[in-house]
Amino acid sequence: MAILKYLRRKYGKDKKLFVALRSVFMALNEVAEDFIDTPVTFFTKTVGTYAGVSREVAGRYINLLQTEKLIVKTRIKDTKTGKFSMGTTIELLDVVPDNEPLPGYASNGIIQRRDNRAALYNKYKNVNASNKIKNNVISKTPLKSELETTEQQAKTTHYAQLIAEKLGDQKSLTFYKIACQKYDPEKLLKKAHAIVADGGADNPGAVFVTWLKGQKRMEATQ
User: Fold this and answer.
1) What is the DSSP code (8-state) at residue 102?
2) What is the DSSP string of 141-179?
3) DSSP annotation string for 201-217
4) How many Cα neighbours within 13 Å face the side chain of 193?
5) Average pLDDT, the chain
6) d(CA 204, CA 188)
7) Residue scoring higher pLDDT (215 or 143)
8) Sign, Cα dihedral of 60, 66, 69, 72
9) Helices marked H in the chain
10) pLDDT for res 105
11) What percentage of the chain exceeds 70 in pLDDT?
């Protein structure tokens, strides 16, 4: 991935910093994929959970990636209250490394130079074409999850709440709802109980996310 090469060249001398930065960047990739149709509530906390770092550490490196102009974070406004309480969308960008040859033109037709951002291109956003954002206000067509039966929605919410409570991670409830939509919620709840019963995890939520990532990789190789 070009962006990781870029970050390694620029920040790799400080191994501790680079490892944390890489973890946060990879977490942002996964968040963008998992929340592809949904703005993320408690955004920084959620990224920290995915990356296995604290909210403070996640926030520090999210800000660094924004400063580098490698991500675009957009807070969504509630049209009724006027407050930015509807969650956050994330747009990831990529950059051509300095030591690799640049093509003559970017996809937008701008001649590329080392000192402009024509080398950047949109990788993906976690809001798809069915969602329209104007002035930071989101309006969207009904999602698949919204078309589920009331019974299915109630089951998903019920198990997600149980998992969040068991792991002491209520702020990541949206993540657990999505997980319960994709995987067997009973299996997920049993795993949450097992993690807590083991008693060795300082951050049970992060352990759960790591385990779930392993399940994804196993499915991908099957």
Assistant:
1) P
2) PPPTGGGS-HHHHHHHHHHHHHHHHHHT-GGGHHHHHHH
3) -S-HHHHHHHHHHHHHH
4) 8
5) 76
6) 13
7) 215
8) positive
9) 2-11, 15-34, 43-51, 55-67, 150-167, 173-182, 185-198, 204-221
10) 39
11) 73
